[in-house]
Amino acid sequence: MSPAERIQIKIGDKPYDISPTTIPYFASYTDFQRNSGQAAEEHPEIPLFETAYRGVENGFRHCFRKLGTDFADYHTLCDTLDFLCIDTLGGRSINTIREDFRSGKGQYELEYKRSILVKGNKAAARDSAFRLLYLIFTAEFADEVKTRQKVYEEVLFVVSHRGIFKYRARKTIRTAYEERFHVSEK
Protein backbone atom coordinates (compact mmCIF):
# COMPACT_ATOMS: atom_id res chain seq x y z
CA MET A 1 0.00 0.00 0.00
CA SER A 2 1.46 3.34 -0.99
CA PRO A 3 1.43 6.19 1.55
CA ALA A 4 -0.72 8.31 -0.77
CA GLU A 5 -3.58 5.79 -0.66
CA ARG A 6 -6.46 6.38 1.66
CA ILE A 7 -8.46 3.66 3.34
CA GLN A 8 -12.23 3.68 3.10
CA ILE A 9 -13.61 1.94 6.16
CA LYS A 10 -16.82 1.95 8.14
CA ILE A 11 -16.31 2.30 11.89
CA GLY A 12 -19.48 1.62 13.79
CA ASP A 13 -22.16 3.24 11.63
CA LYS A 14 -20.10 5.96 9.94
CA PRO A 15 -17.85 5.68 6.88
CA TYR A 16 -14.40 7.29 6.99
CA ASP A 17 -11.66 8.07 4.48
CA ILE A 18 -8.49 7.53 6.50
CA SER A 19 -4.86 8.20 5.67
CA PRO A 20 -2.70 5.28 6.84
CA THR A 21 0.21 7.63 7.53
CA THR A 22 -1.73 9.62 10.14
CA ILE A 23 -3.52 6.63 11.70
CA PRO A 24 -1.13 3.67 11.30
CA TYR A 25 -3.43 1.23 13.08
CA PHE A 26 -5.71 0.98 10.07
CA ALA A 27 -2.86 0.19 7.68
CA SER A 28 -1.96 -2.85 9.77
CA TYR A 29 -5.63 -3.72 10.33
CA THR A 30 -6.45 -3.75 6.61
CA ASP A 31 -3.25 -5.69 5.80
CA PHE A 32 -4.13 -8.29 8.42
CA GLN A 33 -7.70 -8.58 7.16
CA ARG A 34 -6.53 -8.98 3.55
CA ASN A 35 -3.93 -11.61 4.47
CA SER A 36 -6.52 -13.61 6.39
CA GLY A 37 -8.95 -13.46 3.46
CA GLN A 38 -11.50 -11.21 5.13
CA ALA A 39 -12.96 -7.94 3.94
CA ALA A 40 -11.46 -4.88 5.64
CA GLU A 41 -14.43 -2.61 5.00
CA GLU A 42 -15.83 -2.53 8.53
CA HIS A 43 -14.39 -2.14 12.00
CA PRO A 44 -16.15 -2.39 15.36
CA GLU A 45 -16.91 0.84 17.20
CA ILE A 46 -13.90 2.61 18.74
CA PRO A 47 -14.59 4.89 21.73
CA LEU A 48 -14.43 8.58 20.77
CA PHE A 49 -13.05 7.77 17.32
CA GLU A 50 -14.95 10.67 15.74
CA THR A 51 -13.19 13.11 18.07
CA ALA A 52 -9.78 11.50 17.54
CA TYR A 53 -10.25 11.54 13.76
CA ARG A 54 -11.28 15.18 13.79
CA GLY A 55 -8.25 16.02 15.94
CA VAL A 56 -5.88 14.25 13.55
CA GLU A 57 -7.40 15.76 10.41
CA ASN A 58 -8.05 19.34 11.61
CA GLY A 59 -5.79 19.85 14.62
CA PHE A 60 -5.99 18.60 18.17
CA ARG A 61 -7.52 21.86 19.39
CA HIS A 62 -10.83 20.54 18.05
CA CYS A 63 -10.80 17.83 20.70
CA PHE A 64 -11.43 20.47 23.38
CA ARG A 65 -14.31 21.86 21.34
CA LYS A 66 -15.85 18.45 20.77
CA LEU A 67 -15.60 16.91 24.24
CA GLY A 68 -16.55 19.61 26.69
CA THR A 69 -15.42 19.41 30.31
CA ASP A 70 -16.10 15.75 31.20
CA PHE A 71 -12.68 14.67 32.43
CA ALA A 72 -13.18 10.93 31.93
CA ASP A 73 -13.71 11.50 28.20
CA TYR A 74 -10.21 12.95 27.90
CA HIS A 75 -8.72 9.83 29.46
CA THR A 76 -10.71 7.72 27.01
CA LEU A 77 -9.61 9.89 24.10
CA CYS A 78 -5.94 9.57 25.04
CA ASP A 79 -6.37 5.79 25.33
CA THR A 80 -7.97 5.78 21.87
CA LEU A 81 -5.09 7.81 20.43
CA ASP A 82 -2.64 5.30 21.92
CA PHE A 83 -4.66 2.36 20.56
CA LEU A 84 -4.67 3.88 17.07
CA CYS A 85 -0.87 4.47 17.25
CA ILE A 86 -1.30 8.15 16.44
CA ASP A 87 1.81 10.27 16.97
CA THR A 88 0.02 12.87 19.05
CA LEU A 89 3.14 14.63 20.27
CA GLY A 90 4.76 14.68 16.84
CA GLY A 91 8.22 14.47 18.38
CA ARG A 92 7.58 17.44 20.65
CA SER A 93 8.94 17.71 24.15
CA ILE A 94 7.80 20.00 26.92
CA ASN A 95 10.27 22.62 25.65
CA THR A 96 8.86 22.69 22.11
CA ILE A 97 5.35 22.79 23.52
CA ARG A 98 6.47 25.88 25.45
CA GLU A 99 7.68 27.48 22.21
CA ASP A 100 4.32 26.74 20.57
CA PHE A 101 2.54 28.40 23.48
CA ARG A 102 4.70 31.49 23.21
CA SER A 103 4.02 31.69 19.47
CA GLY A 104 0.31 32.13 20.29
CA LYS A 105 0.93 35.49 21.95
CA GLY A 106 0.85 38.60 19.84
CA GLN A 107 3.95 40.74 19.56
CA TYR A 108 4.48 44.38 18.86
CA GLU A 109 6.76 45.45 16.04
CA LEU A 110 8.04 48.94 15.48
CA GLU A 111 7.22 50.21 11.99
CA TYR A 112 7.57 53.86 10.95
CA LYS A 113 7.71 55.05 14.58
CA ARG A 114 4.49 53.18 15.43
CA SER A 115 3.97 49.96 17.27
CA ILE A 116 1.89 47.45 15.35
CA LEU A 117 0.46 44.30 16.92
CA VAL A 118 1.31 41.16 14.97
CA LYS A 119 -1.13 38.42 15.92
CA GLY A 120 0.27 35.15 17.20
CA ASN A 121 -0.41 31.65 15.92
CA LYS A 122 -3.26 30.68 18.24
CA ALA A 123 -3.98 27.46 16.32
CA ALA A 124 -0.49 26.10 17.06
CA ALA A 125 -0.78 27.13 20.70
CA ARG A 126 -4.19 25.47 21.08
CA ASP A 127 -2.99 22.29 19.37
CA SER A 128 -0.07 22.20 21.77
CA ALA A 129 -2.44 22.65 24.70
CA PHE A 130 -3.94 19.28 23.81
CA ARG A 131 -0.45 17.85 23.40
CA LEU A 132 0.36 19.07 26.92
CA LEU A 133 -2.77 17.33 28.20
CA TYR A 134 -1.74 14.14 26.40
CA LEU A 135 1.77 14.44 27.86
CA ILE A 136 0.38 14.84 31.37
CA PHE A 137 -1.83 11.77 30.96
CA THR A 138 0.54 9.39 29.24
CA ALA A 139 4.20 10.35 29.65
CA GLU A 140 6.61 8.66 32.01
CA PHE A 141 9.15 11.26 33.04
CA ALA A 142 12.75 10.34 33.89
CA ASP A 143 13.11 13.16 36.41
CA GLU A 144 9.68 13.70 37.92
CA VAL A 145 10.72 16.76 40.00
CA LYS A 146 12.26 18.78 37.16
CA THR A 147 9.53 17.87 34.73
CA ARG A 148 6.84 18.68 37.28
CA GLN A 149 8.16 22.24 37.49
CA LYS A 150 8.28 22.61 33.69
CA VAL A 151 4.77 21.23 33.33
CA TYR A 152 3.58 23.54 36.11
CA GLU A 153 4.94 26.56 34.23
CA GLU A 154 3.13 25.53 31.06
CA VAL A 155 -0.11 24.83 32.90
CA LEU A 156 0.17 28.24 34.52
CA PHE A 157 0.70 29.79 31.07
CA VAL A 158 -2.42 28.07 29.70
CA VAL A 159 -4.58 28.97 32.69
CA SER A 160 -3.50 32.62 32.69
CA HIS A 161 -3.93 33.33 28.95
CA ARG A 162 -7.67 33.61 28.43
CA GLY A 163 -7.26 35.26 25.06
CA ILE A 164 -5.50 32.25 23.59
CA PHE A 165 -7.04 29.27 25.40
CA LYS A 166 -10.75 28.78 25.90
CA TYR A 167 -12.41 27.78 29.17
CA ARG A 168 -12.60 24.05 28.43
CA ALA A 169 -8.91 23.78 27.63
CA ARG A 170 -7.86 25.77 30.68
CA LYS A 171 -10.10 23.82 33.05
CA THR A 172 -9.18 20.42 31.66
CA ILE A 173 -5.44 21.02 31.69
CA ARG A 174 -5.52 22.36 35.22
CA THR A 175 -7.57 19.39 36.43
CA ALA A 176 -5.20 16.96 34.68
CA TYR A 177 -2.19 18.59 36.32
CA GLU A 178 -3.80 18.46 39.76
CA GLU A 179 -4.69 14.79 39.25
CA ARG A 180 -1.24 13.74 38.04
CA PHE A 181 1.02 15.76 40.32
CA HIS A 182 -1.15 16.16 43.46
CA VAL A 183 -0.91 19.89 44.11
CA SER A 184 -0.38 20.97 47.68
CA GLU A 185 -0.64 24.37 49.34
CA LYS A 186 2.53 26.06 50.56
Number of extended strands: 5
Largest sheet: 3 strands, mixed
Describe the global form.
Answer: globular
SS-derived structural category? mainly alpha
Unreliably modeled segments: none
Oligomer: single chain
Share in β-strands: 5-15%
Strand line-up of the largest beta sheet: 2-1-3
Q: Report, as a whole number of angstroms, the end-to-end distance.
A: 57 Å
Description:
- The chain has 186 residues and is mainly alpha-helical.
- Helices cover 54% and strands 12% of the residues.
- A hairpin with a 2-residue loop joins strand 1 (7-11) and strand 2 (14-18).
- Helix 3 packs across helix 6 (122-138).
- The radius of gyration is 19 Å and the shape is globular.
- The termini are far apart.
Chain-wise SSE layout:
Layout: E1 7-11, E2 14-18, H1 24-35, E3 42-43, H2 49-58, H3 61-67, H4 71-83, H5 94-103, E4 107-111, E5 114-118, H6 122-138, H7 144-160, H8 167-181
Parallel strand pairs: 1-3
Antiparallel strand pairs: 1-2, 4-5
Helix pairs in contact: 2-3, 3-6, 5-6, 5-7, 6-8, 7-8
Task: Offer a few descriptive terms.
single chain; 186 residues; mainly alpha; three-stranded mixed beta sheet; two-stranded antiparallel sheet; 5 strands; globular
Summarize the model shown.
The chain is mostly helical. It has helices at 24-35, 49-58, 61-67, 71-83, 94-103, 122-138, 144-160, 167-181; strands at residues 7-11, 14-18, 42-43, 107-111, 114-118.
